Amino acid sequence: MARLRPAGRGGGGNVLFARQFVYRGNMMGLAGRSADKFPARRGGWCAAITVALLIAGCTPDNPGNEDTANSEEPPRQFNVVEPIGQRSPYGNYLAGRFAERQKDFAQAAAALGRALDDFPDNAGLLRRTFYLSLEAGQNDTALRMARKLEKSGAKISTAQLLLAAESVKNDNFAGALQQLESMEREDLARYSVPLALAWAHAGAKETAGAIAALAPLDKESGFETLRYLHEAFINDFTGQAGPAEAAYRAALGDDPTLGANRVISAYGAFLERQDRASVAAGLYDGFTGADMDGLLFEIARERMAAGRKPEPRIGSAADGMAEGFFDIASILPKERASEIILIYCRLALYLRPDFPLAQLLLADIYEGYGRYEEAAEIHRGIDPSGAYGWAARLRLADELYDLDDVEGAIELLSQMADERPDRSDALVRLGNILRYQERFAESVAAYDQAVERIGEIIGDNWTILYSRGISLEQSDQWERAEKDFLRALELEPDQPFVLNYLGYSWVEKGKNLVEAREMLERAVAQRQDDGYIVDSMGWALYKLGEYEDAVVYLERAVALRPQDPVINDHLGDAYWRVGRQDEARIQWSRVSGLGPDDELRVQIQQKLKQGLPAANPGGENG
Fold first, then answer.
1. Where are the alpha helices (DSSP H) in 285-355?
2. Nearest alpha-carbon partner for 140 in 162, 168, 117, 170
3. Is residue 611 in a domain?
4. Contacts of 182 (CB under 8 A, 6+ apart)
């Protein structure tokens, strides 16, 4: 069994664990994070939005050079040399900017709000405080500042959208139409304004005007699905069943199996309400399995079996406008537009506070920021019995783990596994968490139950075999572990993490060295910048007695992972074998300060005193 090192949160505790597929987003499952995007064949939509973002500089609006949102300088009225006290405007400004960088939007809004009290005429400060208030979900404050921005003559599209949303929420559709028709349609407003206008018309019972308001989207390449979906929603909302069905079918395209689950779910629910449950069942039957799509339609089938009909998806114009804002948020690239996604989610949730899809996406943004408390709070607010409650609870378990509430995460996942004995996802997550905690025997038990529920292991299920193999290896059940790794490679022959783990294990055990070397060469060819995989290759060469070549790989591995004690130890050993004893001792000395486990610490002390024994003629395994 591999040497252990101290466990880290979310990382696992052994050297081989660090060589595995550690990207938790895949191992633990996204649980609906991208479940409601539109299909790839509608890729023009996403491309069009991305171009708009690039033009807009990836900001919610393009406010110009005077904006302080992305500036490192304080507002010009501030006296930078004044003493910074607890209540000084400059101190509040700095506190707000610091909180903003920490993605603590509530604290940032509060601090900049105090600075704004001292400088109420600072346009840039007002604008940024508005954004932060909206991002924090402080709707009353954001609305108050939006009115100030409007009164000042500033044309800030996000503020205008919020004011229009307020009017729609209050059934003041004439006011909303006036606000929206005055807006410039640049950047994201090219998409958001037509959607918002359509729903303001729909609220006023102007169905023809609502459909006409969507027409500008026809000019945007790739927006067919969005345009048809909202046409369907509007007709459904206003009681036009025939046109609604035609639009739903247009949104699905020629092959319903390629449609996004969001469209299929909406169309299926429409059919159920029209007493055409058998047609809806035909749509749903294309989606089965353990993923979130499968669960969404499984719940729909359970509803039909119980003779219940779904509630209308759109109960008000505010609901429809919220759907539009969510649609925009859901297809923006998170790596470049997380703040805009957050803002559009907040707009949607202002209109429709109980909107699980928007809540899931908002929580995903907070999780990406490392704001696990905020993400967990959002997930707790999603009805656990609803269609998206399962996804929310899976994600909540992730966040409890990230917040060091390991037992809370385990308890939640165990409860979920008992609730749905046909599903494996909660058990897989439970196995992962137990493995991260080095509770390997318990982890194996969870994985075993998951495998039993899955039945035939095919396709992407290689991940559970790989994960279980790690726990089996660490609990001294090598024969079972080896079978899992080999089966995983049958399913995914070039998977670098499995190649690396099995190859490294064989090297450590001194068996199948030629095959192990070939596996590691294939792994490192795919992951040349992965320090653990590069180290595995170097350590295999070391075990084979090819010390000079081993040094090359191990030096590279240390450069990639300079703080890893085991990799540094490996390099020290290789230096010793090529006659660079002084450098070997320096390398071993470094290990002591890198948090080695007790076993490695003892070995290092012995090496510093005695060096290494003479090598075998056939290498370390000779």
1. 292-305, 317-330, 334-351
2. 162
3. yes
4. 160
Range of the domain at 607: 495-622
The answer to whether the beta carbons of residues 166 and 144 sit under 8 Å apart is: no
Longest dimension (CA), the chain: 89
Q: What are phi and psi of 14, to 5 degrees?
A: -125, 160
Q: Do the beta carbons of residue 410 and residue 426 sit within 8 Å?
A: no
434 CA to centre of own chain: 22
The pLDDT of residue 32 is 36
Chain CA centroid to CA 90, Å: 36
pTM: 0.83
Q: Say which range, 139-148, 181-190, 196-205, 489-498, has the weakest mean pLDDT.
A: 181-190
State the CB neighbour count (10 A cutoff) for residue 380: 13
pLDDT tens-place string over residues 508-525:
898 998 899 999 999 999
Query: How far from chain centre, in Å, is Cα 484?
Result: 28
Q: What is the DSSP letter of 184?
A: -
Q: Could you tell me the pLDDT band of residue 43, with boundaries at 50, 70 and 90?
A: very low
**Which three-class secondary structure state does DSSP give residue 22?**
coil
- Residue 5 has φ and ψ, to the nearest 5°, of -135, 165
Residue 573, domain CATH: 1.25.40.10
CB of 112 within 8 A of CB of 128? Answer: yes
Judge whether 439 lies within some domain: no
548 falls within a domain: yes
Contacts of 215 (CB under 8 A, 6+ apart): 194
pLDDT score of 222? 79
- Amino acid found at 458: I
Residue 269 to residue 276: CA distance in whole angstroms: 10
Residue 286 DSSP label: T
First to last CA, the chain: 19
Q: CB-side exposure of 202: number of CA atoms within 13 Å?
A: 31
Alpha carbons 203 and 217: distance in angstroms, whole number: 20
Would you say 233 and 260 are in contact if contact means Cβ atoms under 8 Å apart? no
Evaluate whether 241 touches 233 at the Cβ level (below 8 Å).
Answer: no
- Residue 255's pLDDT band, with cuts at 50, 70 and 90, is low
Assign 61 a pLDDT band (cuts: 50, 70, 90).
Answer: low
**Chain segment 156-168, per-residue pLDDT in tens:** 999 999 999 999 9
Q: Which two tokens stand for residue 430?
A: 């439970």
- Residues 253-291 as b/e (b if ≥16 CB within 10 A, e otherwise) read beebeebbbbbbbbbbbbbbbeeebeebbebbeebeebb
Residue 94 lies in a domain: no
Neighbours of 368 (CB within 10 A): 16
* Cβ–Cβ under 8 Å, residues 192 and 328: yes
Please choose, from the candidates 450, 491, 443, the residue with its C-alpha nearest in 3D space to the C-alpha of residue 469. 443
The answer to whether residues 141 and 109 touch, using CB atoms and an 8 Å cutoff, is: yes
Q: What is the pLDDT of residues 366-425, one digit of tens each?
A: 999 999 999 999 999 999 988 899 999 999 999 999 999 999 999 999 999 999 998 999
3-class SS string, 416-453: HHHHCCCCCHHHHHHHHHHHHCCCHHHHHHHHHHHHHH
Number of domains in the chain: 1
